[in-house]
Write a structure and sequence with these properties.
Layout: E1 4-6, H1 11-17, E2 22-27, H2 31-43, E3 46-51, H3 54-63, E4 68-72, H4 80-89, E5 98-102, H5 107-115, E6 120-123, H6 128-143
Parallel strand pairs: 1-3, 2-3, 2-4, 4-5, 5-6
C-alpha cells in the first residue's frame, strides 16, 4: 500500500493516523519521479505529501509544517530555486531542511543551490539510497539540540 497525500486531501484524518511518521513535502511535477520517490520514502517509514507546483506547495505550507522539503528545480510557474529562497527567508520556515532535486548536474548548479539556502542537492536520475540517507541525516540533524 502506498501512502501519500495530495495537498487537497483532508489533512486531519491523515495527520491523526500517521502522526508518528516524519512528513516530507515533495514538490515534483513528474508523475514517474514523484511515484518512485514517494514509494522509496514510504518504504523507510516516511509520510509524503505531494505537490505538483510551487503554488500547490505554498498552499499546503500555509496549513502545515513538514519535517523536510524535497524540491524539483524545474517546475511549472515558479522554480524550486525561487521557493527555496522564499523558505529560507521566512522566520517560520527557514529551519526546515530543503533538498533540491534536479536534472541540472553541474558543480555550478550545486553551488548555486547551496548559495540559495538548500541543505542538500541530489541529481536525477535519483540515487534512492543517497536520497534516503540525505533525508534521514537532515531530519536527525534538525532534531539534535544545539
Amino acid at each position: 500500500m502506498l501512502i501519500y497525500q495530495n495537498f487537497n486531501d483532508d489533512l486531519s484524518s491523515v495527520t491523526q493516523i500517521y502522526s508518528n511518521m516524519n512528513t516530507i513535502l515533495l514538490v515534483e511535477d513528474s508523475l514517474t519521479e514523484s511515484g518512485i520517490i514517494t514509494q522509496c520514502l514510504y518504504d523507510v517509514g516516511l509520510r509524503v505529501i505531494l505537490s505538483r507546483s510551487v503554488e500547490e506547495a505554498q498552499k499546503w505550507l500555509e496549513a502545515s509544517k513538514p519535517d523536510l522539503i524535497i524540491l524539483d528545480v524545474i517546475l511549472p510557474g515558479q522554480s524550486g530555486f525561487e521557493l527555496c529562497v522564499q523558505l529560507k527567508k521566512s522566520p517560520e520556515m527557514k529551519s526546515i531542511p530543503v533538498v533540491l532535486c534536479s536534472t541540472k548536474k553541474t558543480e555550478g548548479d550545486k553551488i548555486w543551490g547551496t548559495m540559495l539556502g538548500a541543505d542538500a542537492y541530489v541529481t536525477k536520475p535519483v540515487n534512492m539510497e543517497l536520497l534516503v540517507q540525505t533525508v534521514k541525516n537532515l531530519i536527525n540533524k534538525t532534531r539534535m539540540p544545539i
